Amino acid sequence: MLVFVIALKSPKISTSWEAVSNLFERCIKSICNQTYQDFQIVVVCHEKPKIEFHNSKIHYLEVNLPIPENNIQSRHLDKANKLLTGLAYSEKFSPSHVMIVDADDCISKHIVKYVIQNPHIPGWFINKGYVYREGSKFIYLRSKAFSSLCGSGIIIKYGLHLKLFKMVFTIIKLPVLKTVLV
Q1: Which of 168, 90, 154 is closest to 121 using CA atoms?
Q2: For the chain, which domains are there?
């Protein structure tokens, strides 16, 4: 089983909670569109978003963490704390792998199937992917270092996830996912 973990920002630091909620809804719809249904979604948030889409695979963890200050370091710390909380909660599903997904990203509908078909692989970083800026007329393929740009570019075997936060790819030697999963 693959568990997707999403850290959702607080509405108190959002310039538009409606926009955040709309992007998040698009994100979870893309996750729930998987061709293989062996997955769960853990969303860690201060407050549940106001969305119309519901699915039994989505689990909301409302946390009472301090609201981050308006600086990048505080926001990164908030996101890291939420992700660690979500990863710990994921254990109840006995996942083979976990994937951290940014709340505004869309993912391929083939990811779960690919991961389940390759359970022996410790993880992947996605080297190629599409980049879209909300409101733009353009989308482009980033063919190198996609996972360093996008927070949704890494899948890792559960149990190795703490190493993800330490960024020790030189030790784990994660293979590049060679194809763009579309």
Answers
A1: 154
A2: 2-177 (3.90.550.10)
Identify the helix (H) or strand (E) that includes residue 20.
Answer: helix 17-32
CA-based nearest residue to 5, from 25, 31, 36 = 31
Q: pLDDT in tens for each of the 182 residues of the chain? A: 999 999 999 999 999 999 999 999 999 999 999 999 999 999 999 999 989 999 999 999 999 999 998 888 888 888 888 988 999 999 999 999 999 999 988 899 999 999 999 999 999 877 776 667 777 787 766 666 656 656 667 899 998 877 665 543 333 343 434 333 33
The Cβ of residue 111 has, within 10 Å, a number of other Cβ atoms equal to 26
What's the token pair of residue 33?
Answer: 């569109």
